[in-house]
Design goal:
The chain is mainly alpha-helical and about 180 residues long. The protein has one domain. It has helices at about 5-30, 50-70, 75-80, 85-105, 110-125, 130-145, 150-185; strands at about 35, 45. Strands 1-2 form a two-stranded antiparallel ribbon.
Length: about 180
C-alpha cells in the first residue's frame, strides 16, 4: 500500500468519524433530522442517516479523482510542498462557501442568499469550481445544517453548471474579447 493510499484512508476515516459523530450527537439530542428537497414539504425528504454512507463514499471517490487527475505519485504525497496547492485552495474555498451559505440560511438572511448563486456562477468564469475537491468542500461545509444528501445534489448541479460556464462560456468570451482586441488594434 503506497503512502497516498494511506493518506486516503486517514482522510476517509476522519470524515467517517465526523459524520457518524454528528449523527450520534443528533440521535441523542432530539433525533436525526430529515430535510425536504428545496425546503418544500410537498417534496420528498431525506434523512441525515444517509450521510453516514454518502459522505465517506463521496470522499473516497473525490480522492480517487484527484489522484487520477493530478497523477499524484508517492513522492508527491510524502512531500506537502510538492502537493498541488490548487486542490487545497479549491477545497477550503468551497468549504468556506458552504459554511457561509449554511449560516445565512440558518439565520434567515434570505436577501443575502439571493446573491450567492449568481456570485458562484460569476466565480465559475475565473475558477474551475466544478472540480471534485470543490464539491467535497461544499458538501462538508453544508452537512451540519442540511445533512449530506441535499448538498451533494445541489453541489452536483452547481458543478455541472460551473463546468459548462468554465469550459464553454469562458472560452467564448475570451475568443470574442481577443477578436475585438485584434480588430481594434
Amino acid at each position: 500500500m503506497n503512502h497516498f493510499t494511506k493518506i486516503q484512508f486517514y482522510i476517509i476515516g476522519i470524515v467517517s468519524i465526523a459524520i457518524w459523530g454528528l449523527l450520534g450527537w443528533n440521535y441523542f439530542h432530539g433525533g436525526v433530522p430529515s430535510h425536504h428537497i428545496l425546503a418544500r414539504e410537498d417534496l420528498p425528504k431525506f434523512s441525515n442517516w444517509w450521510g453516514g454512507i454518502l459522505l465517506p463514499l463521496l470522499t473516497w471517490l473525490v480522492l480517487l479523482r484527484i489522484q487520477k487527475r493530478e497523477k499524484l505519485n508517492e513522492k508527491q504525497a510524502l512531500n506537502l510542498s510538492n502537493f498541488p496547492q490548487k486542490i487545497i485552495y479549491g477545497f477550503v474555498g468551497a468549504l468556506m462557501y458552504g459554511i457561509l451559505l449554511a449560516l445565512l440560511f440558518t439565520f434567515k438572511f434570505n436577501e443575502i442568499l439571493g446573491y450567492f448563486f449568481p456570485s458562484v456562477m460569476i466565480l465559475a468564469l475565473f475558477y474551475p469550481i466544478y472540480r471534485a475537491e470543490c464539491l467535497l468542500g461544499f458538501v462538508i461545509g453544508m452537512t451540519f445544517t442540511f445533512g449530506a444528501v441535499l448538498p451533494t445534489g445541489i453541489g452536483s448541479i452547481i458543478s455541472i453548471i460551473g463546468f459548462l460556464i468554465y469550459n464553454l462560456i469562458r472560452p467564448a468570451i475570451l475568443f470574442v474579447g481577443n477578436f475585438l482586441k485584434n480588430l481594434i488594434a
